């Protein structure tokens, strides 16, 4: 059975290191060692920085793969148009159980990430830098790195920089959730689609990308685009960080040039010679069957062409001894628990999908399969964030990648294999803050006078209708929102709002949010 991954697993490199340079010397590169290993870094003008990102075909490494240069130019144009200073946000909220690459970078080479973020801040004329994290180790390392550079959140500083600590949850990594939490709100998606480049932190244009993306930018700025492109594929140059776990002898984070056969990476981690399947891109990603995984190379285009995904860089093989649908059920149940509880497709659809997969495994036959397909299709494109879509993609891919096992469960008595639980998930005692608190908000319509305070305090659960009265009478309360739901009950002037038990046992939160701690020396030195 797979144990949860540590924050900093074993780190390996194929070829010459770039992002992981110096990892063989020390456990963590402080500012002094960082400069010895990587050397000084001079600022780069705005358009030149965007051109550099274009030349190396830099895309976001957090999953979506959006071109970084387009994002940089969009923020610059919006800031100029509005006449406001933009904000730079580093997303280090890596809360998927199968991903550790950004966590490793923040723990072991935080200054490489800050180099890229400060390059972007200088180029854009930004005066605010926010680094979002969700773990004790990443908060401590990044807070120390800001202090080593003399970066502070004090008023009057040339660049105000701080670490934003959020709960460890799947939806915390959503860009809109990080922006919302940086503004003092809950670390949950707001349910509306607004580009951060137009309106992000404090309403200002915001450049937001994940930790590895900024580190890649810093590497390219040091060595130049020509040398950067000497590594990897022509159309996807450079290296990528992968987290390899699942049915492997040695879970690890590995830096590898694009174009390396995926089977070599799996062999390095001690995966089965011919895995039954390989989950690519993590728990919002897609499965490859064993033969496709053998033919794949490490690149976005190769994996997508075979039906997989690079996504957030998680690679998870499973061996022939386990039931792939049983493995998928464990993940589907976890994904349902990670719901923010803000919209029907997520709050109702994901548990229904997980339950449908369970019915299929328990002998539900063709009717269960059809019901599962219907609920999965109904979830797509209707959520308040990307979590329902990613979860639906995972389930759809599972049904497509293992047709023989699917047929055995639907038409026969099952595949005959137990579930080995090789895909890493949090310990059973670590309940998600997206789990139900066991209570729901209810409105007593005989007392409600339409003051609207409840919708102001907890808009994720209660919205006002056209008549000014709450549009939701009953709303299950996730653990993440229970405190504010209680405050809404206390603040109701008409005493019309109450919390009632739902009949479900409440989950015990074990991953509470910790307050962020504030934390610009020059890019090329340790001087203040």
Automatic annotation (TrEMBL):
Pfam families given in the database record: Complex1_51K, Fer4_15, NADH_4Fe-4S, SLBB
Cofactor list: [4Fe-4S] cluster; FMN
Single GO BP term: cellular respiration
Swiss-Prot/TrEMBL keywords: 4Fe-4S, Flavoprotein, FMN, Iron, Iron-sulfur, Metal-binding
Any GO molecular function: 4 iron, 4 sulfur cluster binding
Entry similarity comment: Belongs to the complex I 51 kDa subunit family.
This protein's name: Oxidoreductase
Organism from which the protein derives: Streptomyces triticagri
Organism classification: Bacteria, Bacillati, Actinomycetota, Actinomycetes, Kitasatosporales
